[in-house]
Amino acid sequence: MKIVSSETGVVSIPREEGPLTGGMGKNAEFVTIKIMTEDGIEGIGYSGFASSVMLKALKESVDALLGQIVGKDPRCVENLNNWLRELAGGGAPSGLVTRAISGIDVALWDIKGKSAGEPLHRLLGGYRDKVPTYASGFLWRTYDLDQLAETSSNLVKQGFKAMKFRMGAENSAAKEIARMKVMREAVGPDVTIMLDINQGWDVNTAISIGRQLYEYDLYWLEDPVNHQDFAGLARIADSLDTPIAAGEYHYGLEAFRTMLELRSIDIAMVDLLRVGGITQWMKAAHTAEAYNVPVVSHLATEVLAHGVAASPNGTWVEHMPWTFGMFTEEPKIVDGMIVMSDSPGLGIEFDEDKLKMFQHQG
Questions:
Q1: What is the location of CATH 3.20.20.120 in the chain?
Q2: Which of 138, 143, 262, 279 is disulfide-compatible with 147, CB 3.0–4.6 A?
């Protein structure tokens, strides 16, 4: 089997406000990827979640790398992933290079699954066929207390049994705790709550406020400080009973080894496009497993549900709707679980009408 051609496009999909201050733009922009084989199999993937000003450079990076794999066997995913990283970045995980390779890697795995007639979650390990999911893409830091209470209550009514909200922008500990209190009162004692700080605190603040959060039965505290402060994260993890989740900001595998060795994290959160695609995501998951640490996904719901389902230490899939507008259907949720499809490969297809509708004008 050989790759004969590829095709890319750019879409701009309306979304909820962003995770920090609402100033990240009203649209989520992605480079769509299609890879065609001589056997008529088409694999799909995407790259994105980068700044709008980098979108042109990202597409050019994807196109340049796709041109290098024409004539290659798409089933040799490990070989191609490694070769492209060496070719484009000297082996170092590096920004747009890794994001571009990751999207290509997803399309290659889609081909591999379709060629084998197996869904990716079985091809990657087949540990389970449904995975718990939590509502993300809502409950932003810009929401006031009334918005938090109303939105979280509505998510419960929609059937979500877990959800994540954001803190880290208030000017006092009391105001931060007030957000946690409202959330717990709004959803009741049986709904799982995760909390994301997006690197908004220092170490002492994280420990001080983190101790006060314990009484609200918080499932995890995510990225409380700068992602490169491994020692600081270790201090926080050692000081708090609430598990610390981190990892989404890191490129490549090396940082996960460091965090695990230093016991900086209790939960490994791995981003698809930063780590290096499905190929490298699974390595990060297995590395965490060796340290008896659970792994959870970051973004890319429809792709990483496969990785979490394939991993014995896989626990939660982030239900982030920003990408759903590209596809013919959304992940199927039953009783708070994403039910994995038996369709080969990713089990999803681009919605061509929507791709045309959301085509980026720039």
A1: 121-339
A2: 143
